[in-house]
Amino acid sequence: MTPAMTQGHGGGEELFRLKQGRAQQTDSGASTSAKADPIIVLDAAASHVTALELVFLLCLFKLAFAAERNLVDSLPGYEGVLPFSLETGYVNVYEENGAELFYYFIQSEDDPRRDPVLLWLTGGDHCTVFSGLALEIGPVKFIREPYNGSVPRLKYNPYSWTKAANIIFVDSPVGAGFSFSRHPKGYDVGDVSSSLQLKKFLYKGFLVGNPATGESIDTDSRVPYAHGVGIISDQLYELLNECSKPHILYKKCFYVSPGPNDESPARMILKKKTKGLKRPPPRPSMDCQNYVTYLSYFWANSMATRDALGIEKGSKDEWVRCHDHDLPYSKDIKSSIKYHRNLTLKGYRALVYSGDHDAVIPFLGTQAWVRSLNFSIVDDWRAWHVDGQSAGFAIAYSNNLTFATVKGGGHTAPEFQPERCLAMFKRWISNKPL
């Protein structure tokens, strides 16, 4: 498995794969069929090739498509006809178990025939890719207003990455978002197996945003980060450093209560008893950043939305943004650093970016593992700018690897800093320095 195929094993990792190229043209100007030769599909013109044909290439085996092409020209909550081309559908990735991955395919708003094709995956515990589409880089976003029982409203996002690329958003692994399995065994996946369901096609590079790379790196950087930005005092920082030493009964260390994963039998029974019951999320304050995720629950569970997206009836009783350990998943990759190393050594371009206000996967840990690759520095640490203002810092290494921070970006950097992230993406995708 490679990092270009992992969902980030529990972290906020967004992944992209891209292939730049142009369509093979017939004399009449129409693109040739992608299915005739899977090797050339990602060189095909996205404006003439359906997402079903593009997604076909992502899989290891020839796939049986479970749904016909579903073209969407309007969405519940969005006023008027969509100003972009949207297609949705399912791809059968495991015929024996009936595992179906749901996708959204959005054409580039610039030049879909020449722009690259990107695949976006969302990290977390079976988190839906719709988070990336509606909260981060897609062409629609929710209008932040009180929920009144009707379908939440959407508006156009002027900082969508579809300004520069065709994007396939895939609900992966099976069970995430609208993806489902016709047999319970289809939900039993992990880092490796879910990756095999998506490979294999030629790609030129990948991006990882606020990536979960391994718990020892990601979590160990949280305390230094909190101290560095002034969230915790010097005294607390020193105490935490003492408690992190391998003496679990050290007298200075306070008792830590069990986390949500350390479930008691009673809690596990409660989960089983309530399984199948719809559980709308608690309503946060409108001022909270996660208020839009609250709105997404009601939007995605609307029958009007399901009809518009072509969701198979009976396939998903309740849509949730992320699951809470209620679906099986094997974290069989402890650290993805070696895969990053392997890919970059093979010449694939890579951009690793981090919001500098992310306390979940702090940039300090990401910066440390990137530095541990021991690649030579090509362009040393410097500020990068948007409209004359500092937008973050970047450093370029040999083997086409770039690390960048996004100033003011949180765990999902494009959600917090859409203009800066779009500028970063456009420059990187065009082989320009940040």
Features:
434 residues; twelve-stranded mixed beta sheet; alpha+beta; 20% strand; 13 helices; disordered N terminus; 16 strands
Task: Summarize the helix and strand pattern as letters.
Answer: EHEEEEHEEEEEHEHHHHHHEHEHEEEHH
Low-confidence stretches: 1-67, 247-264
End-to-end gap: 29 Å
Radius of gyration using CA atoms only:
22 Å
Overall geometry comes to globular
Protein structure class: alpha+beta
**Global mean pLDDT:** 78
% residues in beta strands: 15-25%
Main pleated sheet: 12 strands, mixed
Helical residues, percent = 10-25%
- Number of helical regions: 13
Number of strands: 16
Itemize the secondary structure elements and their pairings.
Elements (H helix, E strand, L loop, with lengths): L13 E6 L31 H6 L13 E3 L13 E9 L4 E8 L10 E6 L7 H8 L2 E3 L11 E3 L9 E5 L9 E2 L7 E2 H6 L8 E5 L5 H4 L3 H7 L5 H10 L21 H10 L16 H10 L2 H7 L19 E2 L6 H9 L3 E7 L7 H10 L4 E10 L2 E9 L3 E6 L6 H4 L1 H12 L5
In words, what does this structure look like?
The protein is of the alpha+beta class and 434 residues long. It has a domain at 3-215 and 290-334. It has 13 helices and 16 strands. It has helices spanning 51-56, 130-137, 191-196, 215-218, 222-228, 234-243, 265-274, 291-300, 303-309, 337-345, 363-372, 413-416, 418-429, and strands at 14-19, 70-72, 86-94, 99-106, 117-122, 140-142, 154-156, 166-170, 180-181, 189-190, 205-209, 329-330, 349-355, 377-386, 389-397, 401-406. The strands form 3 sheets. Strands 1, 2, 3, 4, 5, 8, 9, 11, 13, 14, 15 and 16 form a 12-stranded mixed β-sheet that branches. The chain has a two-stranded antiparallel sheet with strand order 6-7. The model is unreliable at 1-67 and 247-264 (pLDDT under 50).
